[in-house]
Specification:
about 325 residues; Receptor-associated Protein; elongated
């Protein structure tokens, strides 16, 4: 198809290292799309979306057209990259969450007299989701001639998790040694559950820090920006209306001159600061609550929206209350 050829040609603009990185991420995310086609689609769509956003933003807010296009294009590319990364992490965490149940089920199958291969395949339940898909894939690979060891190690190439790598290596070692595999699986399952309980207790202990950071970023910063931006408007209009004689101005210990900062520039600066502040705050929240900065990016759009809404709301309240006082 013509559009697939266009996508493959567009993917050539990517550096080789980044292209290989995307290919690896697609394997981890279980996306069936070809790497060159996916990257080409992202590039073409990002190019069109960048221009679609650049024209109205440049016309409404007076932004530089090329700079706006470039920032919109880069933002879309970063969004796709982070979406893939978060999808990979979500898949790995879901597998880690369901793996203890699968290990315990496999241990029960082994005690029932089944072989290790059969016990593994029968432990795949539909409610296990991605883990069931991986187990079924192992069964298919074994049926076409692969050894169980090779098929199991293949899971580590499709699931990005250090914990899964250790569990699979332990399972492979147990199968090769021919020891008491059922007891090993039971102990591993219990250890994983205990680790999850410890993680939950740690998250509970840092919940107060999460609330503090959220209030500071989503409420405190917009309120201070609203007050300071209104103050700049007041000073601009008051100082702009002063008419001090030259003879009197020379006798004053300070010099009062016209404020050259435009309110429109202040609003642009505040919007930029709030967006950056919200993104940085979301990364901090992710690191504190989930142990990974990337997890915080899920709440970044919500935090940005809350900060901007509170800024304009507080600014409207302040201007409504104090406009008559300053007579502006």
């Amino acid at each position: 198809m013509i559009h697939l050829k266009i996508y493959r040609l567009s993917s050539l603009v990517y550096p080789k290292k980044l292209f290989l990185r995307y290919k690896e991420m697609l394997d981890y995310a279980n996306l069936k799309s070809e790497a060159s086609s996916f990257i080409g689609f992202v590039t073409v769509f990002g190019f069109l979306l960048g221009w679609a956003l650049a024209f109205p933003l440049a016309k409404i807010f007076g932004f530089n057209l090329l700079l706006t296009f470039f920032l919109a294009f880069i933002a879309f590319e970063v969004f796709i990259y982070m979406w893939l990364s978060l999808s990979i992490d979500a898949k790995a965490k879901f597998i880690e969450k369901t793996l203890p149940d699968a290990l315990q089920l496999m241990a029960s199958n082994l005690r029932a007299g089944l072989t290790s291969e059969r016990a593994l395949l029968l432990s795949a339940r539909p409610e296990f989701g991605p883990l069931a898909d991986e187990i079924n894939r192992v069964g298919k690979e074994v049926s076409v001639g692969k050894t169980v060891d090779e098929a199991l190690m293949g899971i580590t190439k499709r699931v990005k998790s250090k914990r899964i790598e250790k569990i699979v290596a332990l399972l492979v070692s147990g199968i090769r040694s021919g020891g008491e595999l059922a007891s090993l699986l039971d102990h591993t399952s219990r250890n994983m559950r205990n680790q999850d309980l410890i993680d939950q207790k740690v998250r509970s202990s840092v919940r107060m820090y999460v609330i503090f950071v959220f209030i500071a970023v989503g409420l405190g910063a917009p309120m201070l920006f609203a007050l300071s931006s209104f103050l700049v408007d007041v000073l601009t209009k008051i100082l702009g209306g002063l008419d001090i004689p030259v003879s009197s101005a020379t006798q004053m210990p300070i010099t009062i001159s016209k404020v050259s900062i435009e309110p429109r520039f202040i609003i642009k600066y505040v919007m930029t600061s709030l967006v950056i502040n919200s993104i940085m705050g979301s990364l901090v929240l992710g690191a504190i609550s989930k142990g990974s900065e990337k997890e915080g990016l899920k709440i970044a759009p919500l935090l940005i929206m809350i900060a901007i809404v509170i800024f304009f709301l507080i600014r409207l309240i302040i201007s409504t209350m104090l406009t008559g006082l300053f007579n502006i």
